[in-house]
Amino acid sequence: YTPGSTFKPAVAVAALDSGLINQYSTVFCNGVYTFYKGYSPRCTRHGHSGNIDVVTAIKWSCNVFFYDVGRRLTSDVYDAYAYKLGLGQRTGVEVSEAVGHLTSKNDSNYMESLDVQAAIGQGNTVVTPIQLATYAATLANNGTRYRT
After folding, report:
1. Where do the domains of the chain lie?
2. Of the four listed, 27, 44, 120, 145, which is most buried by Cβ atoms within 10 Å?
3. Quick one: which of 113, 115, 86, 120 has its CA closest to 103?
4. Domain 4-140 indexed as CATH 3.40.710.10
5. HSE (CB half, 13 Å, CA atoms) of 10?
6. CA 95 vs CA 15, 64, 82, 98: distances in Å
């Protein structure tokens, strides 16, 4: 399953922890991300616009914020954080499970614009429901991942 917007906190953690952004950093959202020529992904704009900080971006699930941060961070960086949080790997739960996949520069269809799609939980990223539960629990436990 593609994780969709549930992936955005992993990108936020990666951006904050790596120093790319801080809690006051903003990205301007007018509903359209125009960094790439001929490719302008959109934001669903659920009640926000203007300069958006990370807390507001998560609250309103601002795609434009995460497109920009994801592009600057790159999937190599935010995927490493997502992996530490429990995505893209086996959980240890004793049931048959798939490993999932995090978008990578090694993907046969990789292009730089795929980083912005992966930053909002789309692109080639797929996870299992149990990985998503592990990820959510790890976020809730301030980054501590308990193994089963």
Report:
1. 4-140
2. 120
3. 115
4. yes
5. 32
6. 33, 37, 22, 10
> Does residue 57 sit in helix, strand or coil?
helix
What span, in angstroms and rounded, lies between the C-alpha atoms of 144 and 130? 16
Distance between CA atoms of residues 105 and 76, nearest Å: 8
Residues 6+ positions from 8 with CB-CB distance below 8 Å: 57, 58, 61, 66, 119, 120, 121
Tokens of 78: 């935010």
Residues 30/62, Cβ–Cβ less than 8 Å: no
Task: For 70-85, write each residue's pLDDT tens digit.
Answer: 999 999 999 999 999 9
Closest by CA position to 30, among listed 71, 67, 5: 67
Q: What whole-number distance in Å separates Cα of residue 21 and Cα of residue 1?
A: 29
pTM: 0.91
Q: Give, as one character, the DSSP assignment of residue 38.
A: T
Are 83 and 138 within 8 A, CB to CB?
A: no
CA 104 to chain CA centroid, Å, is: 13
Q: What is the pLDDT of residues 91-142, one digit of tens each?
A: 777 666 678 889 888 999 988 889 899 999 999 999 999 899 999 999 999 9
Q: Distance from CA of residue 140 to its chain's centroid? A: 16
Look at residue 146 and give its three-state secondary structure. Answer: coil
